[in-house]
């Protein structure tokens, strides 16, 4: 285990080259050292000196001594330094606070020019030093808290009775954070993201990690009796004394959503305890005079709330779906009848609150979100049971919602409900309502300073409805009522901004009891409140966003709102390209990279190949506002862009400019670059596994667009974070020499022949020689990780040795340095340089085990400790279409879908069929859905026919073949197995409903161009 000295050393190495001196009259270097063991508020010291090393040694010795004296093991360490100071009169400072939202002051504060008495922003906020009581919405000096913490911090009295004209100093700080693993995280300095680590764009895995963290926190709050610990005000570790039964139910729903993704036993036990308390204590049954049996959730004050029954229905429906049970249907019936009994038969409106004693109306209307939640609950129940009564109640309610213009509330429950309603009743009036509910709200979603997690739920529900609307030609005209580009930009922004509500350890360490709150979510403007319903909303939001990332369509302007730091200055971009700013940027302008139009993000410079103009030129697109988020335009002809109110950089040749910028980005990058060579699933999976594993040692940059051409690699390089520790790229370009000279990988993993080399006629050795040119961009001493099982291994090894590369081999071959010995239901048994090694892999199929040892071999080549990477492998999820296993609900049951639709070649097709053969299908059926393998050259038909032995060996009960090349295989096997052939995916989709049934294990495998991935997305989207 690393020592505290190792942590200090790691931080020192990161800071020594970036910490710059502050000009006089201030101390040149001021360093704040914060240390916590997680059980108590961080211990703080700060040191000032004329040079960095003196300040460092003074502060480091003080905290090291404190850690030693306290006997702390594995502390959290944070170090901030002052990079800017601004003087201000005391009276002026207090007046300025009146314009700052409570707890949103994001600067440090010093009371003297020498920074002898100084506090960081984290200290000020975590000790409520600038927060008054709950009636004061803006920041204010809290003298009592100031003086109490000042005494604890400096062991001397601190008075705030200062003259109005006394100078104080606002401090801009930036820092790093390190735990026992010695991974150093750079922290954001000022602004709304201040104080937390710099994080790359959210991925399905990182979103799942946030879901897991929040759900684990909620599970810990469930007590033995099934009640939750309701929440905390963490500044002083005060419990929230109240309780809300409706929130008890809504939190359960979020926990079940998380369990469906995690399948964690502790979470399931907590869910069952809380559900038992809900059903047996909080829900009360009633019998009406006519004998009708109802059930209501009874809340504090003997109130029955419409929203309470809705929350119960949502939780129980989700539990039925996730656990595949119908035991709760009788209680769901009574709860739904309770909701229906609150509806006015004439108007469709609901009564909101009843007296629990006699069911008299207590309050006809309390809050509008009860309406949307009730309708949403009934729609979810309708989706489970198909009972027409619940749909009828909702449709009647929506007549009232439309007439009352409920969309003006922009409520997330209404968004969720109308999404479900249009699934089952796709009427124009419902789609229009859903659009109105979000269209006028986008500025609020983009500008809202508080994290407000329900905004993400609103946007994601609306996004699902939009997809359905886009697929309905008769109603597609409604999309004219929404700025779609702005919608997706707002959705992405809100998802990433929600990370500012997560209690990262580097933030939690300043509060009274960090271990209570770390890994949870908070509401900053409510005194950093951590309450179970708030955490649940974050969990639901990130769970839905993860699903969106996995399923999102390729729509221009959508995708990750990645902004890895604006690294490019105007002068640098002009110098590298040899261009001229025809429309100059403002002072301080920066860009986060260059990109082609379909991957445009805010802060990037957009370009278009002048040799391949699109049907809609940039000039016309700019008129529609799509260039709004662009930092600038890169072009050869500036004329069409001069009136678009964006900077314009004119260059002699756009393609050459992009290549030059990519080469410059690579030169500026000081981390390690890893290239992965192969075709189809194998290369993509190894790249994804390696990137996930490397994240243990630092941030990892990955491309997000097409990198098959050098220009694609170049623009991706300009957008990848320069501050990252690693870049990982797939490299299968038909222009391998140009690509490798641009990327200059320091490690190359060869999983197989690239698709580009296989297109050329000739023996595989010739293709291997073409692919071996990847080594020509590498320096002597760099590493080549080679698949020892490849027939072309000798060709690759010979080329690697010729370039004086260090070779590490992997595979199942007896001579492999990293050898796969066995793979059994996710358990990988391997041998690394003769020593046994094992890990758990969250992915099915022996080919995934081979990919895992490839990633292990890469880590071994970089001399990284393999044991540290076990956790990422355990949480690894195959990228979309590369072997992920999904449970698809259908016809009152479910079937399993193995999604291998990203790509296909003969070897990956055989691996997928082997995976199908291992499916535990008794007494269920195996179904193979296979599409054409493309780009196999003149021997393509033979490769398809050669699949017959492996296909039959997988013992499928039914085979569905799609595409012209699969027709001959169908003709050969149709007398041996129930086989069906379809011209294309559209033809297959039409017949699919009658060919699958609950209990099936279904493999979908094809090349990407066949379009089978669309079919997989449709199946995964089934209710």
UniProtKB/TrEMBL annotation:
<dbReference type="InterPro" id="IPR008928">
    <property type="entry name" value="6-hairpin_glycosidase_sf"/>
</dbReference>
<feature type="domain" description="Mur ligase C-terminal">
    <location>
        <begin position="896"/>
        <end position="1007"/>
    </location>
</feature>
<dbReference type="InterPro" id="IPR051046">
    <property type="entry name" value="MurCDEF_CellWall_CoF430Synth"/>
</dbReference>
<keyword id="KW-0436">Ligase</keyword>
<keyword id="KW-0067">ATP-binding</keyword>
<dbReference type="Pfam" id="PF08245">
    <property type="entry name" value="Mur_ligase_M"/>
</dbReference>
<feature type="domain" description="Mur ligase central">
    <location>
        <begin position="681"/>
        <end position="858"/>
    </location>
</feature>
<dbReference type="GO" id="GO:0005524">
    <property type="term" value="F:ATP binding"/>
</dbReference>
<protein>
    <submittedName>
        <fullName>Putative Mur ligase</fullName>
    </submittedName>
</protein>
<keyword id="KW-0547">Nucleotide-binding</keyword>
<dbReference type="GO" id="GO:0005975">
    <property type="term" value="P:carbohydrate metabolic process"/>
</dbReference>
<dbReference type="Pfam" id="PF02875">
    <property type="entry name" value="Mur_ligase_C"/>
</dbReference>
<dbReference type="InterPro" id="IPR036615">
    <property type="entry name" value="Mur_ligase_C_dom_sf"/>
</dbReference>
<dbReference type="InterPro" id="IPR036565">
    <property type="entry name" value="Mur-like_cat_sf"/>
</dbReference>
<dbReference type="InterPro" id="IPR004101">
    <property type="entry name" value="Mur_ligase_C"/>
</dbReference>
<dbReference type="InterPro" id="IPR013221">
    <property type="entry name" value="Mur_ligase_cen"/>
</dbReference>
<dbReference type="GO" id="GO:0016881">
    <property type="term" value="F:acid-amino acid ligase activity"/>
</dbReference>
């Amino acid at each position: 285990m690393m020592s505290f000295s190792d942590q200090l050393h790691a931080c020192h190495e990161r800071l020594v080259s970036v910490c710059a001196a502050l000009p006089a009259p201030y101390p040149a270097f001021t360093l704040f050292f914060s240390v916590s063991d997680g059980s108590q508020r961080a211990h703080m010291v700060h040191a000032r000196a004329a040079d960095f090393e003196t300040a460092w040694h003074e502060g480091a010795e003080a905290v090291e001594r404190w850690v030693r004296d306290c006997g702390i093991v594995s502390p959290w360490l944070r170090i901030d330094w002052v990079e800017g100071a601004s003087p201000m009169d005391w009276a002026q400072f207090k007046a300025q606070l009146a314009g700052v939202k409570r707890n949103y002051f994001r600067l440090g504060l010093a009371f003297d020019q020498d920074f002898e008495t100084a506090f960081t922003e984290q200290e000020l906020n975590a000790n409520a030093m600038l927060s008054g009581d709950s009636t004061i919405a803006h920041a204010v000096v809290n003298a009592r808290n100031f003086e109490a913490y000042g005494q604890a911090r400096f062991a001397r009295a601190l008075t705030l009775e200062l003259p109005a004209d006394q100078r104080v100093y606002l401090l801009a700080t930036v820092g790093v954070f390190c735990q026992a693993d010695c991974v150093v995280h750079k922290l954001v300095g000022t602004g709304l993201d201040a104080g937390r680590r710099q994080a790359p764009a959210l991925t399905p895995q990182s979103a799942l990690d946030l879901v897991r963290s929040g759900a684990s926190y909620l599970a810990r709050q469930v007590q033995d009796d099934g009640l939750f610990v309701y929440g905390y005000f963490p500044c002083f570790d005060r419990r929230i004394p109240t309780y809300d039964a409706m929130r008890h139910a809504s939190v359960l729903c979020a926990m079940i959503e998380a369990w469906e993704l995690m399948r964690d036993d502790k979470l399931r036990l907590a869910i069952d305890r809380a559900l038992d308390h809900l059903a047996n204590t909080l829900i009360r049954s009633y019998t009406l005079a006519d004998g009708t049996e109802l059930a209501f959730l009874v809340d504090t004050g003997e109130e029955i709330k419409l929203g309470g029954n809705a929350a119960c229905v949502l939780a129980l429906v989700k539990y039925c779906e996730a656990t595949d049970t119908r035991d709760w249907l009788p209680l769901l019936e009574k709860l739904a009848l309770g909701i229906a009994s609150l509806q006015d038969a004439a108007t469709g409106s609901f009564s909101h609150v009843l007296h629990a004693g006699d069911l008299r109306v207590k309050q006809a209307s309390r809050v509008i979100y009860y309406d949307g939640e009730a309708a949403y609950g009934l729609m979810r129940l309708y989706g489970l049971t198909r009972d027409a009564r619940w749909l009828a109640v909702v449709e009647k309610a929506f007549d009232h919602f439309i007439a009352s213009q409920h969309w003006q509330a922009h409520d997330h429950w209404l968004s969720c409900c109308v999404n479900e309603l249009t699934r089952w009743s796709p009427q124009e009036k419902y789609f229009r309502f859903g659009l109105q509910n979000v269209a006028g709200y986008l500025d609020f979603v983009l500008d809202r300073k508080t994290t407000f997690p329900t905004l993400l739920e609103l946007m994601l529900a609306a996004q699902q409805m939009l997809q359905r609307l886009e697929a309905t030609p008769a109603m597609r005209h409604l999309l004219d009522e929404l700025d779609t580009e702005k919608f997706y930009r707002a959705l992405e922004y809100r998802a990433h901004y929600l990370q500012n509500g997560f209690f990262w350890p580097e933030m939690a360490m300043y509060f009274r009891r960090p271990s209570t709150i770390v890994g949870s979510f908070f509401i900053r403007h409510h005194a950093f409140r951590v309450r179970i319903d708030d955490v649940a909303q974050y969990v639901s939001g990130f769970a839905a966003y993860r699903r969106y990332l996995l399923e999102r369509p390729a729509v221009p302007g959508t995708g990750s709102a990645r902004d890895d730091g604006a690294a490019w200055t105007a002068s640098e971009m002009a110098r590298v390209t040899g261009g001229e700013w025809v429309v100059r940027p403002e002072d301080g302008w920066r860009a986060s990279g260059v990109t082609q139009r379909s991957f445009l993000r805010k802060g990037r410079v957009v370009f278009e190949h002048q040799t391949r103009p699109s049907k809609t030129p940039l000039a016309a697109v700019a008129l529609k506002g799509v260039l709004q988020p662009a930092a600038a335009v890169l072009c050869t002809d500036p004329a069409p862009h001069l009136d678009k109110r964006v900077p314009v950089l004119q260059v002699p040749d756009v393609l050459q400019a992009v290549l030059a910028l990519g080469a410059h980005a690579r030169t500026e990058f000081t981390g390690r670059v890893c290239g992965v060579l192969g075709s189809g699933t194998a290369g993509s999976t190894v790249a994804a596994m390696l990137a996930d594993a490397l994240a243990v040692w630092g941030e990892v940059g990955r491309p997000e667009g097409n990198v098959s051409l050098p220009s694609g690699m170049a623009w991706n390089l300009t957008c990848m974070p320069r501050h990252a520790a690693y870049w990982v790229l797939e490299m299968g370009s038909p222009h391998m020499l140009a690509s490798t000279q641009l990327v200059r990988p320091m490690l190359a993993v060869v999983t197989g022949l690239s698709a580009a080399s296989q297109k050329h006629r000739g023996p595989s050795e010739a293709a291997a020689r073409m692919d071996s040119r990847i080594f020509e961009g590498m320096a002597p001493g760099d590493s080549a990780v080679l698949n020892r099982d490849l027939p072309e291994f000798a060709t690759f090894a010979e080329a690697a040795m010729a370039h004086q590369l260090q070779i590490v081999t992997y595979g199942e071959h007896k001579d492999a340095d990293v050898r796969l010995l066995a793979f059994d239901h996710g358990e990988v048994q391997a041998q690394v340089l003769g020593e046994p090694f094992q890990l758990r892999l969250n992915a099915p199929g022996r080919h995934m085990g081979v990919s895992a040892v490839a990633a292990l071999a890469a880590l071994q080549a970089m001399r990284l400790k393999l044991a540290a990477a076990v956790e990422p492998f355990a949480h690894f999820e195959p990228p979309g279409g590369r072997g992920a296993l999904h449970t698809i609900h259908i016809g009152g049951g479910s079937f399993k879908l193995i999604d291998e639709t990203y790509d296909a070649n003969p070897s990956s097709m055989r691996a997928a069929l082997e995976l199908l053969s291992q499916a535990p299908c008794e007494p269920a059926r195996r179904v193979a859905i296979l599409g054409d393998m493309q780009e196999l050259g003149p021997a393509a038909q033979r490769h398809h026919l050669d699949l017959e032995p492996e296909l039959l060996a997988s013992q499928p009960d039914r085979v569905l073949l799609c595409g012209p090349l699969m027709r001959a295989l169908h003709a050969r096997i149709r007398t041996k197995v129930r086989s069906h052939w379809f011209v294309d995916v559209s033809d297959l989709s039409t017949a699919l409903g009658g060919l699958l049934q609950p209990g099936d294990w279904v493999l979908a495998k094809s090349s990407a161009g066949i379009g089978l991935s669309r079919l997989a997305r449709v199946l995964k989207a089934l209710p």
